[in-house]
Specification:
The protein has 312 residues and is of the alpha+beta class. It has helices at 2-30, 39-44, 47-56, 65-76, 103-112, 128-141, 149-156, 160-173, 299-304; strands spanning 95-96, 101-102, 182-183, 186-187, 193-196, 199-201, 204-206, 209-212, 218-220, 225-233, 237-244, 249-253, 257-258, 265-266, 271-274, 285-292, 295-297.
């Protein structure tokens, strides 16, 4: 009898472990990790909105920026939808703003959470900064912080089709783990055309590579690290400098707008700035520079060693 009980107990324990593993695995597939934006995301999402999605997501551990971006896309096309309730007023359901909050829901979120500086005073559901940060808090309060992302999205709009659409759009916005634009932890900093290479040129030695692109084109972190500088700089007009984990420093110059601050950690592919024409510049472009303890490196050769092409 004892032997039968022990055997039954062991079988039950094995079944319990299997169920726990299955549930854990299911939840794990729904918990996003910090990801880089895909080419589709960079082409579709306005740079200021992309920066806000990246800034707001860390308010909720386990929430990826792409989920916020997917909601913003589906609700109002990142504030570009020409319809009642996007910039003022309300839609037929009483929702308003780029993330389509009901006013009582927005008020409830902002009563529980203090939104970071940068928005309206008092906070407004029509202000992109406030709406996106409030959405991050709302998703977190609805289960995203416990790994139940599906429940959190369902709470935002109570329909299974909506949940599936958000998850699919988020996947489209995430860069694949291995693509032609990323390799060995490095990503192309901008989608542009090489115009002036590394090396001697009239007037001196060019310590970086120039990539021409329209003003406002997103600039992303070439690799993960910590922002050293972000602001005005002689010759560059406006720059960002990032120190990476191996000690390498990358520089991004002539920027139109920066989206990071000194001391801020960044991950590979994160939006950091927009292409501009500031400083000593003859047209909109990114000056991209890579420095090590031994001096500046040729960015094109550096990327080629990692299987990437800066200049297609």
């Amino acid at each position: 009898m004892l032997r039968i009980l022990v055997t039954a107990a062991a079988a039950f324990l094995g079944l319990l472990v299997t169920l726990v593993a299955a549930v854990t695995g299911t939840i794990a597939t729904l918990i996003p990790t910090s990801s880089a934006p895909s080419a589709a995301a960079l082409a579709d999402i306005p740079a200021d909105y992309l920066a806000l999605y990246h800034q707001a997501a860390p308010l909720c551990p386990g929430l990826d920026w792409a989920i916020l971006a997917a909601i913003g896309k589906i609700e109002t096309d990142h504030g570009r939808l020409d319809a009642p309730g996007v910039h003022s007023g309300e839609n037929f359901a009483g929702a308003g703003g780029p993330m389509q909050f009901l006013q009582p829901t927005f008020d409830s979120v902002t009563a529980r959470h203090t939104l970071p500086p940068g928005g309206a005073t008092p906070p407004s559901r029509y202000h992109p900064h406030d709406a996106i940060h409030a959405a991050a808090h709302y998703l977190c309060d609805s289960g995203a912080d416990n790994g139940d992302l599906r429940a959190a999205i369902f709470a935002y709009n109570r329909a299974d089709w909506y949940v599936n659409k958000v998850l699919a759009q988020a996947e489209n916005y995430r860069a694949a783990a291995t693509t032609s634009a990323t390799s060995a932890g490095w990503a192309l900093p901008v989608q542009g055309r090489c115009t002036s290479g590394f090396g001697p040129r009239p007037g001196g030695f060019h310590r970086g590579l120039d990539l021409a692109a329209p003003t406002g084109t997103p600039i992303v972190a070439a690799a993960g690290g910590t922002v050293l500088n972000a602001g005005p700089a002689s010759g560059y007009g406006l720059w960002v400098r990032i120190q990476h984990t191996d000690g390498t420093i990358t520089t991004y110059g002539h920027n139109h707008t920066n989206h990071v601050t000194p001391g801020q950690p960044v991950h590979t592919g994160q939006l950091i700035a927009e292409v501009g024409n500031r400083g000593e510049s003859t047209g909109p472009h990114l000056h991209f520079q890579i420095d090590t303890g031994n001096g500046a490196l040729d960015p094109e050769a550096f990327y080629a060693q990692r299987g990437l092409r800066l200049c297609p």
